Amino acid sequence: MQDQYHHYIPRFLLRNFAVNNYERIFVDNERLFKQKKHKRNFRNRNNKDALLQTYDRNLSQLGFSLIAKTYGYANMYKDIDHEDAMNVEKKLSKLEEQASKVIRDIIKTSQVESQIVLLRKDLGNLRKFLFIMNYRNRSRWSQFAENRFDNLTWSMVENFMQQQKLKIAQEVWLQNIREILETPHEDVQNNLQIFSLDRTDYQLRMVDCFLVIWQAGENDEFIITSNGFGIFEGVNGSVMLSQFQFAYHWFYVISPKLALVLCHSSFRKEIGPDLLQKQFGFTRSIFEYVPHPPAIPKYVATPKEVPINEYGRSNDTNPFTAFDSHLKSIGLEKRVDDTFTFNFVKVSSATVHLVNSFLLNETKEDLVLTFLSHSYLYKTITKYYKHHKELGVVDQDFSVLKRKLFMVLNQTHEENLNLRRNIPAERSCNWNVRVLTSEL
């Protein structure tokens, strides 16, 4: 079978950063800028030719990269013991298709509205997709491929392999992805074919976290890094020789203007982040003061039964099902056509720079960085070195990148000056940048 290149950041997301989707036109007024003769449509372009503007730290190279060959590995999801070796990739493509429609709607709506309404079934698909995006990333894949676990976790993995008759740890990773993809969102918590720690992780994210949408301003841009899609901001520690992580936020940049942020429930106003600091002594989130408005739900049906006790409350004490039981006790029930209204939270330039700086601070040596404009990336790198207070240790060296950006920007400036010299003195012109109609 021919090798296949599998992306750990899907192509449909990367296309939102494709330079093919943007053009720079030098015209004398807004009216001319908007005329049809200046428009180009890339719908019919071969997606394999779409390019990202990137910086490769290994090569110290600032340039362009094909989306088709960026952020991926050959045969990541190849299941050699299955009659269809690419069965996981095929199942994954179905979830990606569902999620891409939701994300496309989010991006389009954000350009004209201040909020978006999502159906429960679409939100469920999106939440499952975001979890899979964390689980399929290269660090998680290499962890199973290289058996990189602490002693306690490795013994649990070995027991699970024995129970499931699996030969190597990487098969656990593949089986988990396959089972999560095949299992309805609400039932993942009960599927014993999924490794217990990963099943619990899925449960906790669905029950204990909520989604918000942060929107960059007109003059701001989010970036993408090799390990940044789904990266978390929180606490790292150890208990009884076992490592633990507690996440305040997971970040998923879906376009230069939008980031989906999965937030711990302590950022709900009725709870507040003080609780974690007082109970566990955790350091506070560097994004504590950014708005975290949860979606507003609207339930469309009532249950046939209302299981309550003599005090008018639900008898369910299971933390993973108690909320559903509480809904029923007050005459509500979850349905696939329930709706959730999300605000597009317009965050400050300082917040966008802090998100980008956080992503930069967590990068590895083999960083491949994707960005939209040289000028904004230069500003981002400059701001990065000023975030000692928020990030603590700022130990990444981007001096080579900064120098290369400076050279590119100076070269562009000279080209612009030469072009302007050839314009008649009686005409005044301005650069205009427009997002083109493109396939998400």
UniProtKB/TrEMBL annotation:
InterPro entries: DUF4238
Protein name: 8552_t:CDS:1
The organism's place on the tree of life at top rank: Eukaryota
Pfam families: DUF4238 (PF14022)
